Amino acid sequence: MNISIFGLGYVGCVGAACLAKLGHKVIGVDVNENKVRLMNEGKPTIIEEGIAELCQEAHDKGLITATTVAAKAVAQTEISFIVVGTPSSKEGHLNLDYIYTVAGRIGHALQHKDEFHIVAIRSTVLPGTNQKVGEIIEQKSGKKRNVDFTVVSNPEFLREGTSVEDYFNPPLTLVGTDNKLAEQKLRELYKDIHAEFVCTDIKVAEMMKYVNNTYHALKIVFGNEVGNICKGLGIDSHKVMEIFCKDKQLNISPYYFKPGFAYGGSCLPKDMKALKTLARDLYVDVPVIESIYQSNENQKKNAVETIISKGKRKVGILGLSFKAGTDDLRCSPIVDVVEQLLGKGFEIRIYDKNVRLSELTGTNKDFIMAKIPHLQHFVTDDLHSVCQESDVLVVTNKEKEFANLLADYPQKVVIDLVRQWKEVDYNGYYEGLSWGSINTNPAQAEQVAQDFKRTEF
Ligand SMILES: NC(=O)c1ccc[n+]([C@@H]2O[C@H](COP(=O)([O-])OP(=O)(O)OC[C@H]3O[C@@H](n4cnc5c(N)ncnc54)[C@H](O)[C@@H]3O)[C@@H](O)[C@H]2O)c1
């Protein structure tokens, strides 16, 4: 395939050399004449293992050239990658000036091109950038997105130091697009890269790199904080983390990675507190571990605020224990939510098939009696009456008996804390605690979108 690459820095240079290795013909574009000259001489613009050999080989085969002239590169290629820098602004926002300049140049060049053109954003950009790039190209070219050209998001996952190796062995190939032809082209382009090809929504793809990098940073500081506590105790932290990583069920696994409600129960809150206090006793600073509690409290506050925002007073709570299939109320986060709503004068009805007040014993009973001593006035074992009498239904666990709720009560406000449904087609108002709308019903999706309108930045 004929490919142009805008930006011959770290990512652009590696991309150019590796795509040429895969047999594609690449034209690099950069405003820096020195980088253009280097590429035209078969030399890399960066230092990285294996890159010099790849550039030389591609040059010898006539597979890489470079230019400062955008129009030439666009005219001769079917896909243009944008891999210019996206530095931070003074205030910490993303500076997208280079991206938008390139979009303008590609748009300008497309005025004179009849064939369909694919623009692939490989730089790290925040959600919404793809759409803006499309608008700039439409404006400059006078052409129409998804008729004459399209813009896909194809974030780069390489790490400096092992970037050539990473290019050929990425964790996955991710493409965000709303265009079938572009999907086909990119599948073909990457067919020799041995990684799962994931095609998704544009904004999901744009979000991924930030989620990945933030998580990687979190892993590093978490490992360091655990290490510092271990050091304070004279324990070998490497042995600890080695064993930590052996648990592929709960630790290194998709488990717990589902946006939803706060954690609770008899273990996590207690053990978090104990480790935090131990660190304090050792005079070891653990700001990340300490902030976990606050983040969890915020999630309960989010639930309370979401319920209040609906402007209705009759609230049905479906599930009171800390997780489905148990009657354990100790540190159940929904108990805190109920406590706050009662304090604000809400009319609360609670249903939980596992919680029998007369059968509660020990610390379980002590906990709930201390929090909500008159609980018996709100709890019933009649799911139907709770649903009928409440205007807002709050689903707090994934009990199967809640699965038909939307069909049985088609006009309620439903607040889902646990992603009980993957997608809903609902006449009433549905809102997920950490995902907003998954309603395919156009009127309701529009209503939720209005509610979530944020200030543009
Ligand atoms: N470096 C990494 O490890 C890495 C990994 C993954 C993703 N990324 C992301 O990829 C993007 C590029 O990163 P990088 O490290 O390659 O940046 P870089 O600064 O090394 O290279 C950017 C290049 O773009 C060129 N450029 C600027 N304006 C241009 C224009 N109008 N036309 C053509 N070229 C222009 C610059 O001269 C420079 O050569 C960033 O968004 C970055 O966050 C970087």
Major beta sheet, strand line-up: 3-2-1-4-5-6
**Termini Cα gap:** 38 Å
Based on Cα principal axes, name the global outline: globular
Q: In the CATH classification, which architecture of the largest domain applies?
A: 3-Layer(aba) Sandwich
Q: Can you lay out the helices and strands and say which pair or pack?
A:
Elements: E1 2-6, H1 10-21, E2 25-29, H2 33-40, H3 51-60, E3 64-67, H4 70-75, E4 79-82, H5 97-110, E5 117-121, H6 129-141, E6 149-153, H7 163-168, E7 173-176, H8 180-189, E8 197-200, H9 202-233, H10 237-246, H11 268-281, H12 287-309, E9 314-318, H13 333-343, E10 347-351, H14 362-371, E11 379-380, H15 383-389, E12 392-395, H16 405-408, E13 413-416, E14 429-432, H17 442-451
Parallel strand pairs: 1-2, 1-4, 2-3, 4-5, 5-6, 7-8, 9-10, 9-12, 10-11, 12-13, 13-14
Helix pairs in contact: 1-3, 5-6, 9-10, 11-12, 12-13
Bound molecules: nicotinamide-adenine-dinucleotide (NAD).
How would you describe the overall organization of this protein?
The protein is of the alpha/beta class. It has 2 domains: 2-200, Rossmann fold (3-Layer(aba) Sandwich); 297-451, NAD(P)-binding Rossmann-like Domain (Rossmann fold). It has 17 helices and 14 strands. The chain has helices at residues 10-21, 33-40, 51-60, 70-75, 97-110, 129-141, 163-168, 180-189, 202-233, 237-246, 268-281, 287-309, 333-343, 362-371, 383-389, 405-408, 442-451, and strands spanning 2-6, 25-29, 64-67, 79-82, 117-121, 149-153, 173-176, 197-200, 314-318, 347-351, 379-380, 392-395, 413-416, 429-432. Strands 3-2-1-4-5-6 form a 6-stranded parallel sheet, with helices on both faces. The protein has a 6-stranded parallel sheet with strand order 11-10-9-12-13-14, with helices on both faces. Helix 14 links the parallel strand 10 and strand 11. Helix 1 packs across helix 3 and helix 11 packs antiparallel against helix 12 (287-309). It is globular, with a radius of gyration of 27 Å. The two termini are 38 Å apart. 35% of the residues are buried. Residues 6-12, 29-32, 35, 83-86, 98, 101-102, 123-124, 156, 158, 160 line the site of nicotinamide-adenine-dinucleotide.
